[in-house]
Amino acid sequence: MDDDLSPTATWQAKHHVLYQRATRHPFILSIRDGTADVSSFKRWLGQDYVFVREFVPFLSNVLLKSWKESENNSDMEIILGGVAALSDELSWFKNEASKWGVDLCGITPLTANTEYCRFLHSFTTPDINYTVAVTAFWAIETVYQESFSFCVEGDHKTPTELLGACQRWGNSDFGQYCKSLQQIADRRLKEAPIDVFRKAEEVFISVLEHEIEFWNMSSNE
Ligand code: HMH
To answer: What pTM was estimated for this model as a whole?
Structure first.
């Protein structure tokens, strides 16, 4: 591995096949080339609303871990910004769902979603340390950032009615936010004991796998 790369960048390179499958999934490519199925997008929307609701306790717990365990005061403030943004995000989902005629009260989480949410909940126990949890947070946000930014870059043919969703995670401010999370994760990983480092790499891989399954679930009947 390249010594100049940070721990997270090293993993992105080492697991790049999996990383590409998560960030250049056929569902994302179909949005970008204008061939996405309305029913798939609506399924994704309803399922992701359920996911983001479950993300609130996950991220609140990362916030709590940063307060308890971080040696750097700015971490908690950066993570707090992420918690605060979830309130607006849930409103966005409700507004978007009403535009598309998706009834958010009637959503049953599908298997891939249930499994991903179970994975999120596994981080709230005290035996998972801050370094591992913040690495998961970075990876989860980064997959969405890299996926949706691709739909608003270059010669995309993303339909106008899907641009709002793509901009939500694909905008450059969110890109910067993900970079700040990456810096936190890398700073912690450089000081981490080997067992924590290995656990964080495992978590990175699991996030990619769950994200791929989430896209698969959204695109397939
Ligand atoms: C499945 N992964 C999934 N949903 C999201 N909203 C994000 C990541 C980013 O917050």
So the answer is: 0.97
